[in-house]
Structure to design on (466 residues):
DNA sequence: CCTGACTATATTGTCGACACTTTGGTTGGC
DNA sequence: GCCAACCAAAGTGTCGACAATATAGTCAGG
């Protein structure tokens, strides 16, 4: 039962360049707001400028960089309102994903999801504190895929997800212990298991809304970022 | 009070190529499922292959074409389930847009929206039958912009909209007379005017759902496509 | 006659060079 | 001393050519 997630594998050199550049931006190696000089990156990554250029084009499509014609590209700035907007989109899309998952997931997939949840429960209850970003992402990703909606899947995993991760990493909200979020996950799976589309969507939307509120609160009071109780979604 | 929509203007030659190629695909000049040979298009459009290549990359980001490495790109196929999936995404995103518009649109913007609606009403009541795709798109676009959410706006107007238009054009559902949809538009604006976020979202979602149902029905019974009463959203 | 490997061709992937635009600084005039 | 026009440097936009890969057709072997 692997993460089944980073299935996107680079076949061409342009792919590799794109993935590496995206990782370096998301991880903060290249700072938000930084200018992306094609010539400079070309020498730094030891590839032709054309590949850098294509990578930047793809990053622009993901809204990770912004480009102005004849001027250049910059990494997007991370603003609180940008984060809020991102979570509003997530609320809409993942809410719909949960609704569709309740309709279209197979019983086997739901069983797998329950198994995953039990795994997470062990980690949470034993306080092994290993329930963190990876597990949370895995959970959400399965529901997204469970929607069986190509557009939804593409938008979230190609576009939104990396931006969310960028915010998490750079605002220092990764790798937390979560207890309340886990219960919310349980209830969502329960609704999906009951094929209750309406409830599944409602609960997913709440779940993401709560996360957003938590993050907003944390941004407003950046007092004890390591002791907070919930921030993943 | 212009359409304010096709504000995206080509500054570079790559932009022009991209716009033209996209238009030719959306309008059906290039058929769904057709292969996009870079060399062939290069001679046909009289630009370098690099520009064609960049245009195809952008079209891939919009999900208008699909590309396989070392093989080539094809225009996406138009399937009923693809259309349904598209409208599910619209329902989620535009529902959220209506909710946010109820919160963030200025009174002036709402007044403008009402004026637009009155304009449409005249056209509908006089049976000048000019209330068609353009007006409908304008209405939806204003609400999307009214959400003031960058991600939402970008996703819908750069990505979803052109796909929807492609379906409309190619399945022969463009340019119809609409009466019931107009009333739905009225109610949505009323909710936004009352700053009723919940209702605005609900009504928008219903509006899009109805449209989807109408189109599904039409796809199942392609009997009198020119006399149908509603198909825009 | 069928199957499998090989070759030839066409198409995509990648690259380095040239052309154009922007930008910041400099010079000349008022 | 200030403003405008000009100039130079750096960076992006565009192009044609070369390299690598897939596809289809051919030929040899069974």
């Amino acid at each position: 039962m692997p993460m089944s997630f980073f299935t996107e594998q680079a076949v061409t050199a342009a792919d590799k360049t794109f993935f590496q550049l995206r990782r370096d931006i998301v991880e903060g190696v290249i700072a938000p707001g930084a200018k992306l000089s094609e010539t400079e990156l070309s020498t730094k990554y030891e590839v032709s400028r054309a590949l850098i250029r294509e990578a930047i084009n793809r990053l622009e499509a993901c809204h990770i960089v912004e480009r102005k014609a004849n001027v250049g590209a910059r990494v997007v700035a991370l603003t609180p309102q940008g984060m809020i907007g991102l979570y509003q989109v997530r609320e809409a899309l993942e809410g719909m994903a949960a609704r569709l998952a309740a309709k279209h997931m197979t019983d086997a997939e739901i069983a797998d999801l329950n198994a995953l949840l039990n795994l997470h429960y062990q980690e949470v209850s034993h306080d092994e504190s290993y329930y963190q970003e990876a597990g949370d992402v895995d959970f959400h990703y399965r529901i997204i895929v469970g929607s069986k909606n190509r557009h939804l899947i593409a938008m979230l995993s190609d576009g939104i997800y990396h931006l969310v991760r960028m915010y998490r990493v750079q605002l220092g909200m990764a790798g937390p212990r979560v207890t309340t979020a886990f219960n919310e996950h349980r209830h969502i799976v329960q609704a999906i298991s009951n094929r209750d589309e309406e409830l599944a969507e409602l609960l997913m939307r709440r779940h993401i809304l709560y996360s957003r509120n938590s993050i907003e609160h944390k941004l407003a009071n950046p007092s004890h970022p390591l002791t907070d109780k919930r921030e993943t979604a």
Observations:
- Residues 12-14, 47-51, 69-71 of chain A lie near DNA strand C (CB under 10 Å from a C1').
- Confidence is low (pLDDT under 50) at residues 224-231 of chain A.
- The first strand of chain A starts at residue 35 and ends at 36.
